Amino acid sequence: MTQTGHRSMWSSRWAFMLATAGSAIGLGNIWKLPYMIGVNGGSAFVLVFLACIFLLGIPLMMCEIMLGRRAQRNPADGMLALAREARAPAAWKWVGIAGLFAGLLILGFYSIIAGWVLDYIVRAASGEFRGIDGPAAKQQFDQFLATPLQMLVWHTLFIVMTLGVVARGVNAGLEKANMILMPALFAILLVLVGYSMAVGDFSRSAQFMFTPDFSKLTPVAVVSALGHAFFSLSLGMGAVMVYGSYLQRHVSIARTTIYIAVADTGVGILIGLAIFALVFANDLEAGAGPGLMFQTLPIAFGSMPGGDIIGTLFFLLVTFAAWTSAISLVEPAIAWLTENTRLTRKQSAWLIGITDWLLGIAVLLSFNEWQHVHIVFGLGIFDTLDKLTSTIMLPLGGLAMALFAGYVMKTEHVREELGLGMGPYRIWRALIRYVAPLAILAVFLYLLGVIGN
Ligand code: TRP
After folding, report:
1. Residue 427, CB half-sphere, CA atoms under 13 Å: how many?
2. pTM for the whole structure
3. Ligand 1 centroid to 421 CA: how many Å?
4. How far is the CA of 231 from the centre of ligand 1 (A)?
5. Which of 291, 292, 268 is nearest to 280 (CA)?
């Protein structure tokens, strides 16, 4: 397939790997996965999550990279070009278009949480957690949520940070940011894990995460493990596709994908171990839910030696993770704008930045002034965006991509792009044609209340 005009490329395989790992490793790993493990009873959930990553996540990520690299275009035009090549209906482009919007919607709430994290860097550094107990930590967080102006400042900063990187382009922006932030992230992670091994209750944490107790496993847990495997690997909306479209031809998609998935899950597991070690050492609640990071952890930081520094490092790590993910949420839309309109990359970044900034304002108001505004099913603005994207748009996007690669594209094109031997290719194809679509469908049916309940 021919290229459209001049497009930038990652300067090495390493750059692609770091950038895609950067996209995958985010708030999903550090904020959401640990609290989901906690709420769903620990180890059995971890096992199901790992199975979802390996059986569905890896094949689907290969699929998305493959689609992007073959198309050499932004996800919307890319799906159109691939559909033409396969003599399939042009309507496939809607998979790409929906993806562009999903990315913008996700950033609308992602930026708010990232803003909380930025605020908590300052709190940790200024010693605000010292000696606080449960009620005080809760009050601190509630008070913050009730202050829209403060949240607005951090949200604005995070949007500027994100679009500031994207405006610089693939090499000077995306690639450079990931080359700096990702190694820094891994370094901080090692320090944190070391610290929590020394100070925390690591053995209880490991026991909690790795001794399977299947009696605690509910259907809801299975469904959310699958949904989260998607979210965690950034699948289903074209973020990985657009990153793949900047990838050189000679790089092996399978091997690279496995490294990325292992890094993503590895970071999630290590962070979980570190967090629960601190939680157990302080006799705190592992199943605290979404407040785990903002209400439970500060108590642990506030009562441990060197807690100010460790707390600051922790929230810095979360910021780096969120930042490199946010970049990938807007890149599909930015690529579309620069490839289809006369806007420059910088102008496109302004346009998307302002759009997401406005959306974010609605989201942050939903925690205070607009608390009683409900969009659908009694859900507020934040929950609506979260549910709409991670339980509907991403799985549907993933399903569509799997069906496209598994049934619509010519086998020789897929094989040529993936470069797999016959055996591995057959396995991949079975997972993409049967296992992934059925699993995603089962989740939908469950959500619609057909099975279970
Ligand atoms: N994977 C990221 C996380 O774990 C979030 C993310 C970035 C994402 N890009 C995405 C999720 C694209 C879905 C689709 O926090």
Report:
1. 11
2. 0.94
3. 30
4. 5
5. 292
